């Protein structure tokens, strides 16, 4: 799939078949995350792949927007290392860039995926950190829920010329 087509046709998918994605598909998605840009090239990202049903169920119980996770079968929690990148804004941006790359990779593979935010909701950060046994320096930023999609969604053109400014406001 052409990259511009992928960007323009990617949609958040929240309905899955329950079929598990292959290890090869998972690796393609993870590699896309690693390819994302990073402020100062600090590469402060780590990934927790969640496939264990018990952990998946715990996450779905406390995360109000991750109820689809058990049916997807796989979640990838993108975490930031606050020692590698102490500036929180850059840490969040670096992890967000990785998440977007992963969403596009999943779409390019014909899979469904959705971004479930974690940071900066203190309760979600605390619960995710506890469930995944994250070290204190590791902050969960977001989760990519990915699986075989049960629905297709039409592309939406969100371009809005009124929000484009040249040289000054």
Helices and strands, with pairings:
Blueprint: H1 3-9, H2 23-34, E1 45-50, H3 53-62, H4 69-72, E2 75-81, H5 88-108, E3 112-117, H6 122-132, E4 138-147
Helix pairs in contact: 2-5, 3-6
Which features characterize this protein?
6 helices; alpha+beta; 169 residues; 4 strands; single chain; 4-stranded antiparallel beta sheet
Account of the protein in words:
The chain is an alpha+beta fold and 169 residues long. It has six helices and four strands, in the order H-H-E-H-H-E-H-E-H-E. The protein has helices spanning 3-9, 23-34, 53-62, 69-72, 88-108, 122-132, and strands at residues 45-50, 75-81, 112-117, 138-147. A four-stranded antiparallel sheet has the order 1-2-4-3, sandwiched between helices. The model has no long low-confidence stretch (mean pLDDT 97).
